Amino acid sequence: MGLLSDPNRRRALISLLTRLNAPICVLCYFAGVCWFMGLAFEPFTLRTYMSENAMGSTMVEERFPSGERALATGREFAAHKKKVGGMPVDWLVKTMQARGLEVFTQSFSRTLPFPDENKERYIVKGTNVYGILRAPRAPRTEALVLSAPCSPGDNNNQAVGLLLGLAHYFRSQIFWAKDIIFLVNEHDLIGMQAWLESYHHTNTTGMDWSPLQGRGGSIQAALSLELSSDVITSFDIVLEGLNGQLPNLDLANLFYAFCQKIGVLCTIQGKLQRNDWDSVSGYSHAVQTMMLMVMKQASGRPWGDHGLFLRYHIEAATVKGINSFRQYKTDVTTVGRLLEGIFRKLNNLLERLHQSYFFYLMPSLSHFVSIGYYMPAFGLLAVILLLRALDLWVQFANPPAVTADGVADIERQSSPGVLSVLTPLVISHLTGAALYFLPTRFQETAVEHFPVSETEAVVLTAIAVYTAGLALPHNTHRYLLTQLLIYDS
Amino acid sequence: MAAYRCLRCAWLLLVFISSWYVVVSSEETTQGHDRVSVADNPQTAADTAKQPLEERRWEATQVDKAVPDDAAAAAHKQDFPVPDSVLTPTPQLNDEFKEELVIRPLHSGDIYASFQFRTVWETDFTRGSKVSHYRLFPKSLGQVISKFSVQELHISFTQGYWRTMQWGQPYHPSPPGAELWVWFQDTVTDVDATWKELTNVLSGIFCASLNFIDSTNTVQPSASFKPLGIANGTDHRFLRYATLPREIVCTENLTPWKKLLPCGSKAGLAVLLKSEKLFHSSFHSQAVHIRPVCQDQQCKTMSLELRQTLNVVFDLHTSGQGKREWSLFKMFSRTLTEACPLAASSKIYIDITDNPQEEQFELSPATPLLSQAVVLGDRRTFSVYDLTQQVTFGTVRSLNVLIRWKSTEGDMLRPLLHAERYVAGYGLQTGEIHTLMYNNHPFRSFPVLLLDSVPWYLRLYIHTLTVTSKGKDNKPSYIHYEPSKDRVRPHLLEMLVQLPPHSVTEITVQFERALLKWTEYTPDPNHGFYVGSSVISALVPSTVAMNTNITEEQPLFSTFFPCKEESSYFVRVYTEPLLVNLPTPDFSMPYNVICLTCTVVAVGYGSLYNLLTRSFQIEEPNPGLAKRIANIIRKMRGVPPL
């Protein structure tokens, strides 16, 4: 640390930084980007491995037999759904009760800020149905969730059928140590959010819901199932949740391990794993997979029903059955066995999933990049800002010698006052606040007085705020300068 | 070493032989002594005369056990026509053993079996008299009671949670895990020390982790746990209550429990208690209750009652393969062949109240005996099988009661009182405990006593306590709150709340999660920490007049909670325990912290120290190379430098 106290060396370093600022910044930028792109290269990444001891070494045997029956239930569900024109609540309650579950329903409603795209409605009403399989000789302290959304149209009927089939099969087993909650939620994310808020008795979104009658203690893990065809070619896992949160990596590992064991093709971001990592196309495939994950996380929205669980510290993922034009097909019995295996392993958990990573990127399902590897790339990009700031600061402190007279020199030094720095700062903050509050505030007035719809009103207000904001700092700067000149003279 | 061992063996042998001689000679002397005492007390003489006879019978049975049960029983009855006076308990010793099994078919298709074994012994441990002769009463428990001056002792081990909504009220409520509550006699001076010692002893007797009961999970409830037997005072200084919600109950707890029975698991109803079936169930609970009871109406003589209960619920789908048909064999994989020979009564009750004309289920073999009892505020009808009668076993000499349902409907029940509890909120800083109590009575309100014992690491914000029923504030008429003390004692909250008719009463209280010291975490900290069940004790309005006469002959299951008035009955409801996650450090953190602190100290402190201690001076321009060399030479010469 002689560097700080030795003025000579400090001067040398500073002059180096100011002289070579631009090249160093460019170098950092390229190094950062290269590092990040290098992460997708397979030899540079780590293989995934199961960290959780309770799930790793234990063997489970999958015996789910009744895939055909589950499909039949799914068709029955579809028929009832069509008849009712929505969620067949009564039928679901009766079916779940017949399978020996404790069944409860929850109704919810949510006023939308904008009308629905298709149906021009402002309020969404729905009902969630869930059945709890009570684990024998367990005191209702822990639970697992298997959910399937009741989607409009012909989607997801097989998922509900399989959920009911699994419920029937799970009910006759003795080995459950955690309660299992089978949830069929209406209106996808809205229903899921209503159920979760009610379960934890919080209200973060201003939704109306009826309180839950039955609970199963603290939820340890959740799986959301989406399945719209009788046979599938591959299984896709979706991890990205609300605000880019991710479940513990062990959940992805578990899914991958069972796909390997049972022989189902598995994908992440809809992309299969490739073996030709040394070829250009193989590498670009990995880069695409990883970048898709980055983009999805950056968007901040949940990419499946599971995404809302993560806020409550519940590890969750969505599994999607995909039916494409491949030859290799997997039937529902196999899918059921896969889910059974996953649930049995989760049932073996002694603690919440916590052993593995919570921050990671996945170039493929078998490889991952942990936070320790991708943070240096981010650090290299961030250090550019620091270097630029340092440069500016140094220029402020010792301005380049002016050839004019000394009076002008002194004047220049005193000119950058607090006011000139503070003004843009305040203005930019005010603009931010205006952008946050005004569009929703003026939406109603705008709709009343102008022939625009709600959505347009919001966009227009935002644009107005931007335009006003663009004009402001420029003008103030000029105004301040004139003030200063008047003062001087 | 070997030589030494040989020597020790020889020495032991010598000691043994000599002690045998001493025993034999002393026996001779005691016999002589007995002869003297016969004249004094003819009763004792009769006792001692009977002892050898009884012992012979026991030995005979034990020998018989080598051959299969049925044959043994048959052979036994032919070969040893033992007089009845031996089979029935001797009146002189004044102890009596009764056993019974209640089977209640549940609406959901599940089946509930409740075993009761009661030993009543007219004795008095309280007056400091040494009791050393035990017959039916287990000696291990008797010694514990006399040594620790226990007035009442209630201990239960439960695996699973009683589903009130599906199964109704149990005969013997108990919380998941282990529960222990003890009333000490008022002669005990240091109750806490005695309690500590008692829990350790019981831990050994029942092979359970009761030794984990310490001051951090023990409370002294002021109102919720009153003595169930006769008691002089109810000063709660002599009461200790503790639960261990995490306790796992398994065969190692069942075996010592069975050993306390007079017949063990060799004869009587206890032959059904096979662990492979008992633990293949939805609910399993076993308990031991010891209390002093009155013998007669005037309560002239006091006797000690030991009640051992075992409750089990078998599941329709896992144990019953989905078929609504239950038999003793299907439940326990055994049938009954005889009563316990030491039992004064041995009966099986089957609840047929919902089934007066056999429209719900049919029962075989049919029994002509019917019994009515008022239990849990309702008059119930039971079919009774008396195991002491040979007729019960029929020609096949074995009893296998079979219940077959005719209809297959199962709805949720609406029990008059039930409760649930959960933790609300998310994140690891704060939370809220919600307790919901349902009064499903259409028009009667009744008071309930709520007891909450919360560990210290959940810091309750007691000012946030709210009690609401039907959207309105419901002010408790009695609140007893003892704040916790970190690492010393838990929170204790007791409230008397009036539940309005047909309502839900919600009690909420916020808490903060404490950060523990790093050695205080359990080996599995991410599993979470348990908060024991809250206890709701209530006097629920009864539909029929309750029986307040305690001495009348009644089935055992209806006499556990004493009944003081006719219009209401006592119910205890336990909520589910809670599993709460506390903020947990990453346990590889100490290493990280050491690395980080070392770096920070080295970089930060080092540079600061450097700046502070360095003396700054204006540096002369660097002298040229020639000058430096000249200076070195001058220094060697001893001349001042240039």
Structural class of chain A: alpha/beta
How many extended strands of chain A?
A: 14
Name the structural class of chain B. Answer: alpha+beta
Query: What composes the largest sheet of chain A?
Result: 9 strands, mixed
Please tell me the overall pLDDT of chain B: 81
Biggest sheet of chain B: strands side by side, in what order? 5-6-4-3-7-8-2-1-10-13-12
Range of strand content of chain A: 15-25%
Helix content of chain A: 40-55%
- Report the uncertain regions of chain A: 402-413
Radius of gyration of chain A: 29 Å
Would you give an account of this structure?
The complex is a heterodimer of chains A (489) and B (642). With 489 residues, chain A is of the alpha/beta class. Helices cover 51% and strands 17% of the residues of chain A. Chain A contains 15 helices and 14 strands. In chain A, strand 4, helix 7 and strand 5 (179-186) form a beta-alpha-beta unit. In chain A, helix 5 (67-84) crosses helix 11 and helix 7 (157-171) crosses helix 11 (332-347). The relative contact order of chain A is 0.13. Mean pLDDT of chain A is 85; it is low at 402-413. Chain B has 642 residues and is α+β, with helices and mostly antiparallel strands. Chain B has helices spanning 2-40, 42-64, 69-79, 84-87, 139-148, 164-167, 191-206, 251-259, 275-278, 328-332, 589-613, 625-637, and strands spanning 95-105, 111-121, 150-159, 177-184, 218-219, 239-244, 283-294, 302-314, 325-327, 345-351, 361-364, 370-375, 378-386, 402-405, 417-424, 430-439, 446-454, 458-469, 472-473, 478-482, 491-499, 503-513, 529-531, 535-541, 568-574, 578-580. In chain B, the strands form 5 sheets. Chain B has an 11-stranded mixed sheet, with helices on one face. Chain B has a 5-stranded antiparallel sheet with strand order 15-16-22-18-19, with no helix packed on it. The radius of gyration of chain B is 34 Å and the shape is elongated. Chain B starts with a helix and ends in a 5-residue tail after the last helix. Mean pLDDT of chain B is 81; it is low at 21-91. Classes of the chains: A alpha/beta (489), B alpha+beta (642). The A-B interface holds A 1-2, 4-5, 97, 100, 102, 134, 136-142, 171-174, 200-202, 215, 217-218, 311-313, 350-352, 354 and B 159-161, 163, 165-166, 176-177, 245, 279-284, 315-319, 321-322, 410, 412, 420, 422-428, 432, 434, 524-528, 530, 576-581, 584, 603, 606-607, 610-611, 614, 616.
